[in-house]
Every structure is written in structure tokens, then in C-alpha cells.
UniProtKB/TrEMBL annotation:
UniProt name for this protein: Transmembrane protein 135 N-terminal domain-containing protein
Domain Transmembrane protein 135 N-terminal, chain residue ranges per copy: 332-460
Composition bias, Polar residues: 539-551
Region (Disordered): 33-56, 532-560
Amino acid sequence: MPPPLSFFSILAIKYIPISLYLSADAETLTSKMPSLSESNSSPPPPSSDAFDGAAAAERRLREAEDRLREAIEELQRRQRRAKMLHPPCDHADDSCIANAIGNLCQSFLLSYGVRVGIGILLRAFKLARRKSYSSLLDLKLRHVQQLVSEKDLIVREEACRVGLLFGGFTGSYHALRCFLRKWRKKETPFNVILAGSIASLSILALDDSNQRRTLALYLLARLAQCGYNSAKSKNKFHLWGSSWRHGDSLLFALSCAQVMYAFVMRPESLPKSYQDFIQKTGPVAKPAYKAVRECCRGSPVDVASLSSYLSTVKGADFVSLQEFPSIMPCSVIHPGTKSCLAQNAYATSNTFKKTFPLYFSLTFVPSVVLRLQKFMDAPFRTSWLAVTGAVRSTAFLSCFVGIFQGAICLHRKVASQDHKLVYWFAGGFAALSVLLEKKGRRGELGLYVLPRAGESLWYILVNRRVLPDIKNAEVALFCACMGGMMYYLEHEPDTMSPFLRSLIRRFLASRISNPGPPSNRNPSYNHLQTLDAIKKPNLPNQEPESQSSENYDLESVPGL
């Protein structure tokens, strides 16, 4: 028994022959009309009946086309309602599992390559310091082994953990999006938030709780930025002073003030790696900071260990040390140099030499790994931009160290009593060196240092029992913040900073985060477009616009 005809099949059977008959009627009537050539030679008198019949036929044809259009639009509306019950997965692969695994592998390789590349480049600079720079060009087996050996290059475990973090999140996120879409039978913002939160459990790939806490606080700062931008765009909330020209510099200064205070007075509140970075970058030794800390707290100074340190410094003058001094003199802060001005100049230049390889690695390696095609097209320009960016960032950090050192020495010239808040204000004043950076980089630096300051404050409040010490609280915070970040990425991407938005989209590498025009078109859509083309023919001046948008719409390319 044949299946019953649907409403739209009956419409198609009813109206399509009518349209064909009416079009044939119109052709018959128009064929009976004299041609243009004959009318030019001997124009016959026009017949009113013929014109009336042609107009009536054309009117009936248009009415049939309108009814057919309405039927097609109704069909499309029903198809859209049916798709809402079972929304399709918008990814290139037919299989959701294959799409998730492919994105997992791609993100793992990208993050692993970035981390290993930075480690190899830093190792190369370290070898260049010990030997001549020409030794790097001598690609003997011994030099290659020194450059990439497991003994000297201990970054592979960390690179694997970073790869599992990014790759695990990307693969899990895509798999959960497809699962929730099919299970809930609808696509809502809740799917995005839930998938992002559950996929963020990949942060457990990092075994260091300090790193997890730093990432969680960094995402919290970014989420607050997105929330504020969203509320501001909707005229729901506006913070006083947010329109300041140097508001980002103020944020960086306040964050640096807390970080430098914590480094001098409460170093245990900062991550060990961050402590080591500040210590190696600055010119003051650990015993001197320890003596300053004990002096500010009113505790007895360990004179024996301090004397032992001063005896190892070349050119140090004899200093009469006391157990309870009011302030530590400059001869203890920089014992090897008598002049404070010379010490500040030395600190600035030495910091530039030590940190340039780091900034060059952080600038050059991501530009090659994440934008390989751009680097292949213009390698010299990319390298030059990396060098200039590294020089600018290194100059900023060098001036920061010099200004901080100068503020400490200046305080000892004009005051006779030390105070712990001096180091808070010195850190904020030294942060003015951020004005050497590009305008777009200042906000990024402020949001990078802000989590460090928040982490220090968190530790101090927990240590004083103001906040409870909850185990794995940083994991829960990271999951909650990542769910919110994915919501803003999918539904309000303009609230995110361009740098973070492009970075997340690059690692997600999916058409979900890089929406493009849908490629599947049903026959009713094509027929409807044909009817529109009859009324709106393509004009020649419209072709270049369509071609340019088709060729240069890079956001529609997956992975860019």
C-alpha cells in the first residue's frame, strides 16, 4: 500500500502543474504578439484583448508563485522545528567521537610543541652564554645532544602535562557538547557552561596545586573582565574610573605593589617558581631580604648568617651589624657597590641581559608554532617583530627592577626607620615602567599579575584563618570560571580580549568557535533562492563584494 500523501506533496502536485500551465499560456499569448522587428517595419494596431489576456496570465502566474513560496516557507518552518528537537552537530567530521579525538590530538601537539620549543630555545641561549655564539651553528652530534638531551632539557614531563591539560579539555569539551546536544535535544547556553565546567577537570593533569591555583585565579580575573564588559555594553553597570586612559596601568601598579610586598615580607605566599623568577631577576640576595624582613617585623636579625654572606661578597665594606637595627643600610642591600646610582644602572643592564632570552622565546616560539603559515610566508618580518617585541618587554622589566632598587635606596637616604609598607609603595611606583609597553599589552600584563596578587592575599587570609582551607578549591574555581568563559566565547565573544579569544579559538580549532555559513541546503531552500533570483537579478557590481567576502572571511576557516 503506498504511503499517504502529505499536505506539502498535495500542494506541490496542485500548484506546480498550474504554474507550468500558466507559464505555457503566457508563452502562447506572447508568441501571438508580433515581433519587434515586424513592429518596426509595419506596426499593427495593438489589441486590447491580447494585452488584457497577457496581464491576467502573468497575474495568475505570480499568484501561483506566491502560493508556492508560502508552501515552501511553511515547509522550512516545520523543518526548523524538527531540527530543534534533534539539533545537528556542526562539525566537519561525520562522527562526534572522531571530531573529539581529532581536536584532542591537535591541541595536545600544539601545546606540547610550544612548551618544548620554549625550553629548547632557552637552552640554546644558556649554551650560548657559556660558549661562543658560533657554537650554536656547529651542528655536531655532541652539541645537538646537549641541546635536546633529557639530562639537560627537563621540560618534557611538564610539556606532556600541559598537553594533557589543553588536549584533554578540547577533546572533552567537543564530546560533551555533542552528547548534551543529543541527550537534551536542544542547544542552549547551559550546554556550553556545563560542557566547559566538566571538561575543565583536565586541570588535574597538573600535579602542582600552586599552578592550578594560579590558573584558576587568572581565569577568575578574565571572567570578571568579561562580566563587566557585558554589563557595561548593556548599560547595566559602569565602574567609576573605568574609562580612564591609563586604567590598565593602575591595575598593574596595584597588583605589582601587592606582589612585591609579598615577596619581601611574605615570600611563602607566592609560588616557588615565581619567587625564584623575582629573585634571579633582581640584584638583591636572599640573606639581605631576610634581614630586611626581620628588621621590619621587630625580630632579632640573624647576625651570624648575615656576616657570613657579607664575607663572601667581593669588595664589601665592613658593616657594624646590630641584632635590632632600625633600618638596614645600603651597604647590606648592595654590598658589592658603594654608589647607589651605579648599583641601579648595573641592576637595569644586568636584568636586560638575563631576561631577553626569556622574552624572545615567549615571543618567537608561539608565533612560529601557532602561526606557522604566516611565518612561512614572511619569516624575516615575523622574526623582526619578535625581536622588537622582546626588546620592548625586556626594557620594561629592566626599568621595573631599576626603579624598585632606586626607591629602596632613596628611602634609606631620607629615613632612619624602616617600614613594611615602603616595599608596597616601591612596587607600585616601579610598575610605572609598564608605560614602555604597548597599550594593548598593559591590560594583559595587569590581568597576568592580578592573579599572583590574589593568590598571595588568599594565602595570607587562609593563614590567618579568615578564609577556610578547602582542599582542591582551586579545581572547583577553575571549572566554574572555565564554564563561564566558554559561555562568553560562544554567545558574547566581544566581551573577551582579542588575545584571549583568538588563543582559545586556536586551541579549540572547531567550527563551533569559528562559525561559518552552513553548507547543507535542502531543495526547498534552493528553489526559494531561484524564485528570489527572478525578482532580484544579480548585478555586475555586486560580484566583487561577494567574492571578496568569500575569499577573505578568515573567521569562517576552522582553526584560525
